[in-house]
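Entry 14: structure prediction run for 3-isopropylmalate dehydrogenase. Input pasted below.
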Amino acid sequence: SNMMKVAVVGGEGIGPEVTAQSQRVLNWFAVKRGVPMTLREAQYGIIPYLATGKVMPPDTVEAMEEADAILWGATGGPETKEVPAAARKAGSLLGLRSKYDLYANLRPIVAHPALSDSAPLKASVLTGVDFVIIRELTSGIYFGEPRGIETLADGQRRGFNTEQYTTDQIRRVVRAAFELARTRRNKVCSVDKANVLETSVVWREEVIALHAAEFSDVELTHMYVDNAAMQIVREPRQFDVMVTGNIFGDILSDCAAMASGSLGMLPSASLGPVDRFGRRKALYEPVHGSAPDIAGRGIANPLGSILSVAMMLRMTMNRPEDADLLEKAVASALSGGARTADIAEAGAKRLSTQEMGDAVLNALDNVAARE
Ligand code: NAD
Ligand code: IPM
Ligand code: MN
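Run finished. Output tokens:
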């Protein structure tokens, strides 16, 4: 059947708070637009750990296994210190990315005009910002071996990790970047540290070779990662598609959040390989984490999670018009003045997480009625 299965995993910290709002949005699309889907909620993190000894209990594993798309909230926070490292590792987000080979992590950065007064960067820098970071998500220093902590003969401790990239690991994610660029402004900027790191030398040479062989119609540039961090806040409009490795992409995407106004605004999609039926496993989650400093207060911005639902509608459910509708509704809620604390100007009214969800649902009704 064409019924899409979605596993909803709120997780820890503000994860469940923001995910509750995206779940309302998903329900709206099921009921009001007839998008065929079933939602299965599953627990992750400290709560199931205390009850069962597992952060990712069997029911959650099964829900994700059968799912076409996983809607993920967040993991982490101080209370999770109670979970021993082995139990945490047995059910980690990194393990999930690895298990489903979710190698292509798309993190779109869009500056909403309505936010230019509250954003940390000047409106003149933000106007028109619209780019996508594609972060390699299943290799690099996050997964390279050997890794570990050892005690040296003189009693010092030494922690070590291995940055590594192979031809195939590079080419498949860079291919995704070139293909995405062809649907946009046809520009790819590859970010590396090829002046220092051998992994980056190989990365850059593979990018150049793939470009010459198959994507010479796409404009390709290269940038060192330190300069890229600076250029993202100096002149973010120069970028269309940026492609980079795992750890550089992690750091640059939080940095790029400032080109959208707030980390709470950024969605993401993590995509696996296409199988023989043309399907691919996908996990959708906001870029932010569990935000322990604001968790439990009902004030987190749910828009990063809600915009991840738009990515799910577009990329898993093949509903581009519904994805557009949701993005328009978010823009309309923002231009109508809806603001959580992270995107509010001094003195402006601040909505709760739930009220921001209400604002998006109202905007969905209104935008849908106009169309
Ligand atoms: P964080 O992203 O949780 O928070 C960074 C800052 O941004 C905080 O001040 C927070 O309040 C703010 N913020 C984040 N999301 C927000 C939102 N939706 N609305 C308003 N403000 C928001 O990063 P951190 O504090 O470095 O990490 C906290 C925990 O989250 C750590 O355990 C980390 O490992 C984990 N983490 C998990 C994920 C994930 O699940 N994908 C991602 C990043 C960090
Ligand atoms: C992210 C997070 C994760 C990462 C953490 C929680 C492992 O920061 O999704 O950006 O580093 O990939
Ligand atoms: Mn991160």
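Notes: Residues 13 and 290 are 4 Å apart (CA to CA). Will compare against the previous run tomorrow.
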